[in-house]
Amino acid sequence: MDGVSVEDAAHLAGVPDEFQRLWTPHRMVYIERGQQRPDSDDCPFCVAPTLSDEEALIVHRGTHAYALLNLFPYNSGHLLVCPYRHVSLYDEATPEETDEIATITQTAMRVIRLVSHNDGFNIGMNQGEIAGAGIASHLHQHLVPRWQADANFLPIIAKTKALPQLLGEMRQSIADAWPR
């Protein structure tokens, strides 16, 4: 094989075992920064717009709302659409915020379809901690691309989700394809 080197894992450092490794380099941020949750005053959806698009994984900034990749994606391209204003429930959002959340969601669907060739979407909001919101204090809508064959045994048997593209690469693909 031209320029390709393959090594037998039995000859690598360490003791061979029966475990399989699923490499997830995008999660290094949690190792480097530690596993602690942010202070209650540091809402990640309020902090994100103060960072660079690359650091916050933002793909689009609007006037009242923005879209960013989920750090814990269900699938590659899993976006969150958030108002800038710190508001927890959908019925507390202004008409301008809900209009822009809807517009960004529609555009995101078109862009993700173009970039990822997915077959469908799951779109939704979990309102309140009891409803499953991981960050209940700041409104956010999930947009999860789905493919015909994206479900497999890994999440059920191994509690593992395989993601084929790194978050930074996916952010760049979506941001580049976003209409100007």
Keywords:
single chain, 180 residues, alpha+beta, HIT family, subunit A, 5-stranded antiparallel β-sheet, 5 strands, 14% strand, globular
Short description:
With 180 residues, the protein is an alpha+beta fold. The protein has six helices and five strands, in the order H-H-H-E-E-E-H-E-E-H-H.
Report on the architecture of this protein.
With 180 residues, this protein is an alpha+beta fold. It has one domain (24-175): HIT family, subunit A (2-Layer Sandwich), CATH 3.30.428.10. The chain contains 6 helices and 5 strands; from the N terminus they run αααβββαββαα. It has a 5-stranded antiparallel β-sheet with strand order 1-2-3-5-4. A hairpin with a 3-residue loop joins strand 1 (58-61) and strand 2.
Main β-sheet, spatial strand arrangement: 1-2-3-5-4
Q: What is the H/E order? A: HHHEEEHEEHH
Structural class category: alpha+beta
Domain count: the total is 1
- Unreliable segments of 5+ consecutive residues: 35-39
Percent of sequence in beta strands: 5-15%
- The total of helices stands at 6
Just give the CATH class. Answer: Alpha Beta
Radius of gyration: 19 Å
CATH fold naming: HIT family, subunit A
Percent helix, as a range, is: 25-40%
Which CATH architecture?
2-Layer Sandwich
Please give the largest β-sheet.
5 strands, antiparallel
Mean pLDDT: 82
Number of extended strands: 5
Give me the CATH superfamily.
HIT-like
Shape type: globular
For the termini, the CA-CA separation is 44 Å
